[in-house]
Amino acid sequence: MIIDTHAHYDDEAFDEDRDALLLSLREAGVGIAVNIGASLESSRRTAALAAKYSFLYGAVGVHPDSAAELDEAGMRELSCLSDGEKIVAVGEIGLDYYWDTAPREVQKYWFERQLALALEKDLPVVIHSREAVQDTLEIMRRTYQVSEGKLRGVIHCFSGSAETAKEYTGMGFYIGVGGVVTFKNGKKLKEVVETIPLDKLVIETDCPYLAPVPYRGKRNDSTYLPFVIAEIARLRGISEEETERITEQNARALYGF
Ligand code: NI
């Protein structure tokens, strides 16, 4: 079974055919997808989608680009939403110094508050980190230590070096790999895939974004994951069936399915 560990099916890019597309996933071999919140509003939509479809689970959290919208009332709402039966993680949360939509201190503050929420609820975290390798790693390492190793989760759409990946997998975190691994300029990620422990690798779409080759630039969805699996299999010198089996197992361990 293919498990998409990171999708945004609440995105308006799916407004025209969301139901038909979601209902076609199983036929394409995709047994489970996890919809990821990125704002308060999309976290609410995620909870609604997860309630509607048996094969859809959700994560709730506020992305660094929307960090400025958070306040104590927002945190209380996230806390309530995270108690939902189908909510399996807190995310996506983290730091984004590429867009720098919110001041960095504001990003860091709400990132740490949401890490604390995940620990309080005993949920894994879904981490977004863009152009913020050092600060993200530092906060993750500190929180991991303070929580005595209880902090767990996935570094989604991993864009760091093989060395940074090793730091994360050493703490037990999973590395999320998607369409970028099929790109010609995805050399750095290919090296990560070649070197990380196989039991720490999960696959994701981040749809509607980051469609794999040969659909690069088009709207992405979970039915394109076989292209990601094929490239991982090639890089690791194992079969596609084996890659699918291992990444399914890892996704189940990550989210507790
Ligand atoms: Ni995402």
Structural class: alpha/beta
* Major sheet strand order: 1-2-3-4-5-6-7-8
Question: What is the helix tally?
Answer: 9
* Shape call: globular
The whole-angstrom Rg is 17 Å
**Proportion of residues in β-strands:** 15-25%
Helix content: 40-55%
In this entry the ligands are: nickel (II) ion
Number of separate strands: 8
Low-confidence stretches: none
* Terminal Cα span: 13 Å
Mean pLDDT: 97
Order of helices and strands: EHEHEHEHEHEHEHEHH
Characterize the biggest β-sheet: 8 strands, parallel
Question: What structural keywords apply?
Answer:
globular; 8-stranded parallel beta sheet; alpha/beta; binds nickel (II) ion; 42% helix; 257 residues
Description of the molecule:
With 257 residues, this protein is α/β, with parallel strands linked by helices. The protein has 9 helices and 8 strands. The chain has an 8-stranded parallel beta sheet. Strand 5, helix 5 and strand 6 (153-155) form a beta-alpha-beta unit. The radius of gyration is 17 Å and the shape is globular. It binds nickel (II) ion (NI). Nickel (II) ion binds at residues 6, 8, 36, 92, 206.
